[in-house]
Amino acid sequence: MKKSILITGAGSGFGEGAALALAKKGHRVIAGVEIAPQKTALLQKAEEAGVELQIEVLDITNERDREAIFKNEIDVLINNAGIMETGPVAEIPMEIVRSNFETNVFGTLAMTQGFVPQMVKRGSGKVIFVTSMGGLITFPFVAIYNATKHALESLAEGLKGELAGTGVEVCTINPGAYATGFNDRGAETMARWFDPGTSFTKPEILASIAGGLENQLDPQELVDAIVRIAEEDNSNFRNVIPEGIIPWIKMLQEKAWVAKKDDPLVFLES
Fold first, then answer.
1. Which of 127, 151, 154, 199 has fewest C-beta within 10 Å?
2. Looking at 141, 145, 178, 194, which residue is catalytic?
3. Does residue 145 carry a catalytic annotation?
4. Per-residue model confidence as pLDDT tens digits over 94-130
5. How far is CA 193 from the centre of its chain?
6. Fold observed for domain 4-255
């Protein structure tokens, strides 16, 4: 059955790939992009792919953008938009922390609140939160981003319980490290303000994060997962992709129960 699907953050990465793939399968796709130049670029890619997309400028932190998009009737909301800025928890500027939460948590929650009422009234619909493996575990220097994804996991769990019996489905997608450029650009943000000469972070800890973005995966695997979950009914609530990292995540979650003073929760290699 063809569906009406809105995906945020469709100007690049997973969102762009999923928007084009879902449109190719015949769904009505509303692709939300943050800025106008992304709309121009995506229109060209849609034309090249021979698919039709409804592309809307949608900064999810902008109330006017949200109010305009809420006029649409949709079957599936894919909350994919997000940002990542990195740095040590005890030193990262608070305005950066607030910015990450404003987009990843508050903007996403506002989008969800805008569409859930129509789904409940209709008795059907699906809300998908694209979180991260970092919504289940936490990495040094990425903890602010991870915190926003932990928050989304909690919101999704609460929403799932609160909407039980309404016909509205809620689930999460937890990507591992995929080579869209998102992780690399996020890692670079720390260089804008961080001074290792004045930081109290131990040099060996800083050195241990080198090479952490090597061997990233082909994002097509995650795009395929988004398409599958958007199309299917009665999905698993949590969908970690690739599935091969699930035992590692569970091992790190267990480690938190027994870790002592100087025990790292995530193993880093120098």
1. 154
2. 145
3. yes
4. 999 999 999 999 999 999 999 999 999 999 999 999 9
5. 24
6. Rossmann fold (3.40.50)
